[in-house]
Specification:
The protein is mostly helical. It has a single domain, classed as Na+/H+ antiporter like fold, CATH 1.20.1530.20. The protein is built from 17 helices and no strands. The longest helix has 30 residues.
Length: 325
């Protein structure tokens, strides 16, 4: 993990504060709205560029972890997100939709880092990455149709068009670029440039956050208590899914590296993808997008703590025996 990636919680917080400051300047706030979609599309292109979809079949080599991961991410977690929203955000429909979009999009990058830190099976986690990526893109509109239509006005045809524009076209462009780079520069060239690609992705994300808060900051400043409501459902999600992953690991008799892989893919979320869709499909409901900005402030810190906690469970660690007793 580079310094830029390690500093994301701080950089995101600074981006939020800068955006809120710019929101007080009407001329800048008006211009910032036009920058959100281009910046998010640049971020997604950089995120999609290194994803090797050709490795999809490798995930099925370990069917127990693969099935458990898919069940947690795409069957259990949407139901959990709906329940947490109904419990904690009953009177805040926009926050419920944002929470749902956040929870149903598993991470496709950072969780590899934390799997490695906790001495998990990084190869298996890498094989799961494209599988999680494809499923979340295909199922996101399905989840919105099932769980969100009663909360916000939702035109499914418009939503489908936005998702095709924001996700599938960029995915195709990234795949074409990756193929062209491999042909022109060789198969290792793009891999060597991945640190720069990651920096470009995170830079676009932070600039997009500045633009979002500059455009919609006044709405947030008028009702700041709404975002505080997100702490309980987001925190509950991490606790519940961590405990569930450990329980599944024991029931399925998974080795420690496999449990780490399952835990990390069940916890880390892909807020940039959900944020891009929210900005495109729900531009008139700013709190949905603002909800998706809050998660990275918490997620990286929580995932660092999760990695250290998993290491305590590792066989042979000084605390493993005490934890099991």
């Amino acid at each position: 993990m580079t310094w830029f990636e390690r500093s994301q919680p701080l950089l995101i917080l600074l981006s939020v504060l800068l955006g809120l400051g710019l929101a007080l300047m009407d001329d800048i706030a008006a211009v910032a709205g036009y920058l959100i979609t281009p910046l998010l599309m640049g971020m997604l292109y950089a995120a999609f560029l290194p994803i090797p979809l050709r490795h999809l079949s490798k995930a099925f080599g370990n069917y127990r972890v693969t099935v458990a991961s898919l069940a947690m991410n795409f069957v259990w977690t949407p139901l959990l997100a709906w329940a947490l929203g109904a419990l904690f955000l009953r009177d805040a429909p926009d926050l419920r939709v944002g929470l749902l979009m956040l929870m149903v999009t598993p991470c496709t990058d950072w969780y590899l880092v934390f799997t490695g830190i906790a001495k998990g099976n990084v190869g298996l986690a890498t094989a799961l990455l494209p599988l999680n990526f494809v499923f979340q893109i295909v199922l996101l509109p399905v989840y919105l149709a099932i769980f969100a239509q009663s909360l916000v006005t939702l035109d499914l045809w418009v939503l489908a068009g936005k998702i095709v524009t924001v996700l599938f076209i960029l995915l195709a462009l990234a795949a074409l670029s990756r193929y062209s780079m491999n042909w022109l520069k060789g198969p290792t060239w793009l891999h060597e440039k991945l640190p720069q690609v990651a920096i470009a992705q995170l830079l676009c994300l932070n600039l997009a956050i500045v633009a979002i808060f500059a455009t919609q900051g006044k709405a947030l400043l008028q009702r700041p208590e709404l975002l505080l409501l997100l702490l309980l459902p987001i925190g509950s999600f991490f606790v519940i899914n961590f405990v569930l992953a450990q329980w599944l690991g024991k029931r399925l008799q998974l080795a420690y590296p496999e449990v780490v892989c399952l835990t990390c893919t069940a916890l880390a979320r892909n807020s940039p993808v959900a944020l891009a869709v929210a900005a495109a499909a729900f531009g008139d409901r700013p709190l949905i997008a603002l909800t998706l900005v809050i998660s990275p402030l918490l997620e990286l810190l929580i995932m660092v703590l999760v990695a250290q906690l998993l290491l305590r469970f590792r066989p042979g660690s000084p605390t493993a025996g005490r934890v099991e007793r």
